[in-house]
Amino acid sequence: MNKGNISFELKSWNEASLIEIHHQTHKWQSELSFIKEEIVFMLHVISKYFNKFVSTRHIDDTFYVTEKIEMLEKDLEQIKEDMEEHERDLVDLYVIPDEKDEIKYREAHGNLAKGLYHFLKKYNNLKKTFFLEAEEVLRENELTLDQGIDFIPE
User: Fold this and answer.
1) How far apart are CA 29 and CA 41, in angstroms?
2) What is the pTM for the complete model shown?
3) 3 lies in a domain?
4) 104 lies in which domain range?
């Protein structure tokens, strides 16, 4: 299963080794960091061209997109926290191996994958909406992104 750039291509979570699960989680974390930068960029574009985005024709869409971006940003932070906890649980499994804890860990990994998949569906839909809206606003105002977006992520 593949949603966006994030891959869910491990065998069954029950068949994968713990190190494979660790690598998959690390890859997800890395890709979520990239998504965070995309969110910062989208908010920067809206801020930079705010007066153009909130023209009478685009005001409702702009507020909708901005609200959804901020909600997804909170969801993203929660997913990242959950993944950090998941990695700490893995360390505990290596320190004190326990079959029941390993089963719970694998179940938790599957739940993380499902949550991440649903997050990505929402994020990709919102990203598409944002870029369609931004393209329309920029086209209407005869602007291009290379005309003055001085963007340096925090």
Assistant:
1) 19
2) 0.81
3) no
4) 12-139
